[in-house]
Structures are given as structure tokens and as C-alpha cells.
Amino acid sequence: MFRNRLEAGRRLAERLEYLRGQDVVVLGLPRGGVPVAAEVAAALDAPLDVCLVRKLGVPYQPELGMGAIGEDGVRVINQEVLRGTGVSPDDLHLVEERERRVLHDRAARYRGATPPVSVAGRTAVVVDDGVATGSTARVACRIARARGAARIVLAVPVAPRDFARRLGGDADDMVCLENPWDFAAVGQFYGDFTQVEDEEVTACLRRAASRHRHSAGARSTDREVTVTAGGTRLGGRLTLPDGATGVVAFAHGSGSSRHSPRNRFVAEGLHRAGLGTLLFDLLTDAEEADRGNVFDIPLLAGRLLAATRWLREEPDAEGLALGYFGASTGAAAALWAAAEPDARPAAVVSRGGRPDLAGPRLAEVTAPTLLVVGGADPLVLELNREAQIRLPCENRLEIVPRATHLFEEPGTLERVTELARDWFTDHMAPAHV
């Protein structure tokens, strides 16, 4: 019936055209439902978010759902499947416990620290690539209802003929393109039903956020700014490409400033990838004269936290996911700040950093962290290896061959830029407009 999910999404969008112009939020069910939902959101010119739901598969037949769980503690159990399969309460508990861990990990990957898009008082269009037992769709509808959606429309390309009965009234309206008599599984009605990976989900979210920011009138900016930290005024430069989907705050190393040529080189690479940057001075000229300030990591981290608050209140950066890029001692400041509950960066990258100077704060970092070190910088490399062991978050250590501490060798800073770009674009799922 459908060549692939993109075609299914376009056809579904045509059926939902009556919603265009209304206050709509499209919620895709990861992972397969998100490419379908992205087509619907584009056609309706509506924001796109994920509705995180996990099927509870029968232990010896995982494709058969015995229920589903979702965000906000929502849970649906299919008693009919439980009775038919003889799954014990203990087995059900083990499956649910495992799927809740996956749910938590997916939330961190897709949204970072960004809260879900608000559906309160709006029409929530819940989209999947198809409905089989209906458990995941019911959970998604209940999540939207619990979050205050005024109306819920469940929209799928294909479902069994009795899918309305299976939904049990959890949706206010149901749209389905095909209800075949011979329904056995969703995949049988797609020519290409290749498994959707996490990278495709985050790419759909980034593209949707960029498109929606364009339609909302977001424009590029490149200007000098002043960040206030307590009573201290710090100079900076905010650069946001047209349609930026995230912004990275830079924390420079000792003896450097917002004019650091190496950080500016990396920043320009991020701009080409559609990411904004804030380069700012961690210290005033007078403060830099005191060598103790340069290695005062709590002070530097406090300045980065002040910049974080400033960014979140800056109209031009409203709704953008936030990342940290730290170099040398600035990397320690970035990790120290990332451990603060109100910081919530979506990702951190350290270039030739001294993460060891973050001390006990390393154990409190939850943001995905990339450590980039030169292969010809043995002391710092060893310090990063030791710090990596102490990081409880998703992390990776990348060694750039032949690079010394400042990455001055030909091609090495280009490699740092590529690594940082990929890490941020993979992990900084956009905030929603």
C-alpha cells in the first residue's frame, strides 16, 4: 500500500489538511512513526515533537505487544494478550523495568534537556506508521491528554479494521488511510519498512525545528553582546545562522578570550552546520591579571552558568538547544557547570581539556560528553583517560593523531571541528517553538 514511510506521511498529511491553520502540535511515536509525523508536521506547518512510548513485548515473542508504557508514568496493559500468552506478573515486571530504562535513554537522546513541547489547550495529532494491538497508541493519547491537550487526533496510515474498538475512546478523532482485512503486521503493507535509527529521529526533529523557526520569522544574527555575571560585565559575540537549531557556549582556556582564533575556527564550522555560538570572556582584563583567577574553576563555571541563563532569556536564542564547548581549563569549567541541575546542556565537547580540574563534579555530569585530545599531548591524554572513567554519562574519547596541546599541526583543528560538529548535531535535539 505504501512505498515507504515518507509516502505514507505525505498521503496522511493530505487527509489531515482540514487541520491546517489550527493550533496543532504533531507528536510522532519513535522510532518508525517520526518520519511519518515529520511529513504531516511539514504539510500542516506545525511544530513536531516525539511522544515517548515503549511497547511491552511478550518475552518469547517481542513483536507481540502485551501493553505499553510512556512518559509521565502512563501505562496500558492488554489483558487479552496476557491471558492468551500466559505471561506471569514477574515476567511482565522485568520487561517493563527494561523498557523504562530505554524510555529514559531515548528521552535524553531526542530532547536533551529540553522539556516536551506544550500541548496544553492545543490539538495534538498523534502519528505512528501503523497500529497493531493499539497499546502504544493508547498510551500516547493518554500522555497528550494528561498534558492538557484540548483535542486528540490519532492518525496512522494503516491499522486493523477494529482499531477504533482497540483504542477504547482515548482519541477524540481517528484518521486511518487503510483498514485491510488481511492485517497481520504493520510492515506487510510497506514496500520499504527498514528500521528507523535514532539518528534519523533526531534529524527529523532538527529539520522540523529549523523549518518552524523559519516560518515563525527567526532570522540570523551576528553581533557583540554583554553578558552580566553578578555585577561583572563580560564581552561576547552571539552568532546565530538563519534557522539555527541549537547554540553552543564556548568556554576558553587560560590566557585566551572570546577572540581565540582556534575557538573562532571551530565556531565557524558549527555555523556551517546550522548551529549558533556564543563566544564570551570568562574574565575581565583586570581579573586576568591575577593568575589565580585563571585556574579558579568554580569562578569560571559560575560565569558560564551566567551566560547560560543569559542565552535562555535572549529572544534571538529562544527555544534553542544549548551545548558547551570548552578548551583547556575552560573544559573543566564546562563540565563543572554541566553538573549543576539548572544548567541542563544537551551536550559537552572538550578540546585539549583538563577535565580532571572539575574534580568530584565529574561524577554528576549527565550531558553526553566528547573528550578530544591530541595524540602528541601525553600528559593531557592520560588525564582525560582517567576522567573518562569517572564520567557516568554517555561519553567518548577521541584522539587526534600527531596533534599537540594547541592543535596547531595541519589538519588537526579541522578534525576537532568535524568531531565537535557531529557530536553536537547528534545530541542537541532542538527545543520546540
Automatic annotation (TrEMBL):
Keywords: Glycosyltransferase, Transferase. One of its GO terms (molecular function) is glycosyltransferase activity. It comes from the Bacteria. This is Phosphoribosyltransferase family protein. Residues 10-185 form the Phosphoribosyltransferase domain. Pfam families: Pribosyltran (PF00156). It comes from Streptomyces cinerochromogenes.
